[in-house]
Amino acid sequence: MSKRVVITGLGVLSPIGNDIPTFWNNLINGRSGVAPVTQFDASEFPTRMAGEVKDFDPQDYMERKEARRMDRFVQFAVAASKDALSHAGIDITQEDADRIGVYIGSGIGGLKTWETEHKKLLEKGPRRVSPFFIPMMIANMAAGQVSISTGAKGPNSAAISACATGTHSIGDAAKIIERGDADVMIAGGSEATITPIAFAGFSANQAMSRRNDEPEKASRPFDRERDGFVMGEGAGILVLESLDHALARDAEIIAEVAGYGMSGDAHHLTAPAPEGEGAARSMKRALKDAGLELEEVGYINAHGTSTDFNDKFETMAIKSVFGEHAYQLAVSSTKSMTGHLLGAGGGVEAIATALALKEGIIPPTINYEHPDPDCDLDYVPNEARRVQVSAALSNSLGFGGHNATIAFKAFGGEE
């Protein structure tokens, strides 16, 4: 018999807060974290804004020597994981270390390190490249370093599926607990790609918003005037735990991970499948896995990137899955406030969805000013909504046609 999986700890670094109370307060009050880029001179780029993590000092979480051997995305993962474990009230010991695992991914990995070391190679020659270049850059190192930093010796892996990474990591981690291979998993995503090469690449394929004169209004999912996504950075980490393990230690339970679905578009490098049929299959699988009826779902945290095709096709996917009930759903995109955190997005949005269930407040989609006839659902425009829902979905859709959906339930007890 498979085990039930619950969420007992949360850790976040985001453009709207580096701890859960700040993040949640800003989220439900509709505050944007998007502003002009400060990490490099973006004056020559068509997009000059981003959702940056502010006031982060890695030495609050690790020794300076350790921090220098980690890319920024790894520092984020370690910091958010330590916060999540603290929130869960878990102190890993030698007695339980092999029953506690890590599943943290990154869509791109250490791009900042790659740029720095490549510049050294070109300007100063191969002998000046850091011996830590490779272990700092590779995308699995968030999971590796979290294991080293916390002592977690259980199952350890990393999903790398572009913008679906965080959601895949959480879903896969939940399945590890379900089948009994771990009691606790530290799971989520981390990303730090606010760099010149990333901006050049995304600008070249015209994916990012160019509303530089109003950065806080640039990310506008489902709005008719949307013109592209806004890049963000950060980490979203959840402590997942088997229900019996959580009850045995009298842990506070935030929500339940009830189901997980994923699919592939088999369509295009960057464009979603027509009418969102791949996303629809992912949602259907999550619902089936959770044993949820359509009418039980009251909220969807949408992928909602603020790009033309994504928002239109995700809307179509929701309608194809839920039929008439789609118009009874609250659907919001928290990317309107955080920007798009790429591989970390699914982790941060899972946190938002779990808190929405626990607190009875659905975060809004801000900057929703011009209704789009192609996007005709209830996007919780501009103001949070107090409503208690019993079940919710969180969608993440990535380049390459990767689709992932997690179904959450409000925790109502052992039965």
From TrEMBL:
<keyword id="KW-0012">Acyltransferase</keyword>
<keyword id="KW-0276">Fatty acid metabolism</keyword>
<keyword id="KW-0443">Lipid metabolism</keyword>
<dbReference type="InterPro" id="IPR014030">
    <property type="entry name" value="Ketoacyl_synth_N"/>
</dbReference>
<dbReference type="Pfam" id="PF00109">
    <property type="entry name" value="ketoacyl-synt"/>
</dbReference>
<comment type="function">
    <text>Involved in the type II fatty acid elongation cycle. Catalyzes the elongation of a wide range of acyl-ACP by the addition of two carbons from malonyl-ACP to an acyl acceptor. Can efficiently catalyze the conversion of palmitoleoyl-ACP (cis-hexadec-9-enoyl-ACP) to cis-vaccenoyl-ACP (cis-octadec-11-enoyl-ACP), an essential step in the thermal regulation of fatty acid composition.</text>
</comment>
<feature type="active site" description="For beta-ketoacyl synthase activity">
    <location>
        <position position="163"/>
    </location>
</feature>
<keyword id="KW-0275">Fatty acid biosynthesis</keyword>
<comment type="similarity">
    <text>Belongs to the thiolase-like superfamily. Beta-ketoacyl-ACP synthases family.</text>
</comment>
<comment type="pathway">
    <text>Lipid metabolism; fatty acid biosynthesis.</text>
</comment>
<dbReference type="InterPro" id="IPR016039">
    <property type="entry name" value="Thiolase-like"/>
</dbReference>
<feature type="domain" description="Ketosynthase family 3 (KS3)">
    <location>
        <begin position="2"/>
        <end position="410"/>
    </location>
</feature>
<dbReference type="GO" id="GO:0005829">
    <property type="term" value="C:cytosol"/>
</dbReference>
<dbReference type="InterPro" id="IPR018201">
    <property type="entry name" value="Ketoacyl_synth_AS"/>
</dbReference>
<keyword id="KW-0444">Lipid biosynthesis</keyword>
<dbReference type="GO" id="GO:0004315">
    <property type="term" value="F:3-oxoacyl-[acyl-carrier-protein] synthase activity"/>
</dbReference>
<dbReference type="Pfam" id="PF02801">
    <property type="entry name" value="Ketoacyl-synt_C"/>
</dbReference>
<dbReference type="InterPro" id="IPR017568">
    <property type="entry name" value="3-oxoacyl-ACP_synth-2"/>
</dbReference>
<dbReference type="GO" id="GO:0006633">
    <property type="term" value="P:fatty acid biosynthetic process"/>
</dbReference>
<keyword id="KW-0808">Transferase</keyword>
<dbReference type="InterPro" id="IPR014031">
    <property type="entry name" value="Ketoacyl_synth_C"/>
</dbReference>
<dbReference type="InterPro" id="IPR000794">
    <property type="entry name" value="Beta-ketoacyl_synthase"/>
</dbReference>
<dbReference type="InterPro" id="IPR020841">
    <property type="entry name" value="PKS_Beta-ketoAc_synthase_dom"/>
</dbReference>
<protein>
    <recommendedName>
        <fullName>3-oxoacyl-[acyl-carrier-protein] synthase 2</fullName>
        <ecNumber>2.3.1.179</ecNumber>
    </recommendedName>
</protein>
